[in-house]
Amino acid sequence: MPGFPIIDTHVHLWDPARLRYPWLAGLPRLNRRHSVEEFRAACGPVGVGKIVFVECGCDRTFSHEEVVWVSGLAATEPRLRGIVAHAGLEKGDAVEDDLARLATLPLVKGIRRLLQEEKDDAFCLRPDFVRGVRRLARFGFTFDVCIYHRQLAGVIALARQCREVSFVLDHLGKPGIRAGLLDPWRAEMRVLAALPNVVCKLSGVATEADHAAWTPAQLRPYIDHALACFGPGRVMFGGDWPVSTLATDYPRWVATVDEVLAGFSETDRQRIYVANAEAFYRV
User: How far, in Å, CA of 122 to CA of 151, rounded?
Assistant: First the structure.
């Protein structure tokens, strides 16, 4: 385990009794309250010094209420330093009012508009969506990209068109680990990493493998490749709790990442676990 408090850049918190999360209906293991108390218990021996909350796919009618609720949690959870909120970027220039409203809440550091379930792999290249992403720069918001590996080509093109926006790729772009697929993911990750406005999260990897039977050795080629592409200065740790509990407990995931980082210098480990997140999310 790391011998210092880490920053978790990808924590989900939800309470189905408070807000609606339609996607939880098909996942009874997750369809219950997961808030700050449950996260504290889940961390076990892992020292987490700061947390970045990432939007949880609640009913979009309540997306602003989600941000207000999580902002309120910071009163009892001082480690909660940043929020990545939902915004309908496909609205194009019209999303500016939504972004301005979010900008009044000091914990909001970035935006995520889920792309992984879009049937059109080039959805993110629709003109209105591109304009919406470009609006993020006006507010200093980052953009969390949550996709499946088949959508990487579109995200590469988007990041090229929006160089004024800082992007972070969630979950290594969800490579096809369960099927043992490495290509074209490997080549596309190299291309994406060549763009200076993109960084990468080491998060959500175990859930792309066999939930019941994965091993660290199966995940290692993917984590190693992301580190080789982006380098220790552009990679951040993320736990993806509690979605990650479908495949692993929190300490096991941290131990898996820490094993990969065993050959890195202490300075580089501090970057991956702490400094890169502080700089990117301004926490």
Answer: 7
Distance of alpha carbon 240 from alpha carbon 66, whole angstroms: 17
Question: Is the overall model pTM greater than 0.90, yes or no?
Answer: yes
Could you tell me which of 126, 196, 208 has the C-alpha nearest to residue 167? 196
> Cα separation of 137 and 162, whole Å?
9
Residues 156/191, Cβ–Cβ less than 8 Å: yes
Which residues are within 8 A (CB) of 186 and not within 5 positions of it... i.e. 6 or more apart?
Answer: 225
Cα separations in angstroms, 36 against 14, 39, 256 = 9, 5, 23
Give 8's strand partners.
Answer: 51
Tens digit of pLDDT for each residue in 185-206?
A: 999 999 999 999 999 999 999 9
Per-residue three-class SS string for 151-167: HHHHHHHHHHHCCCCCE
Give 176's contacts (C-beta < 8 A, 6+ positions apart): 149, 185, 208
Q: Can you tell me the distance from the alpha carbon of 1 to that of 45, in angstroms, rounded to the nearest whole number?
A: 8
Domain ranges for the chain: 6-281
Superfamily of segment(s) 6-281: Metal-dependent hydrolases (3.20.20.140)
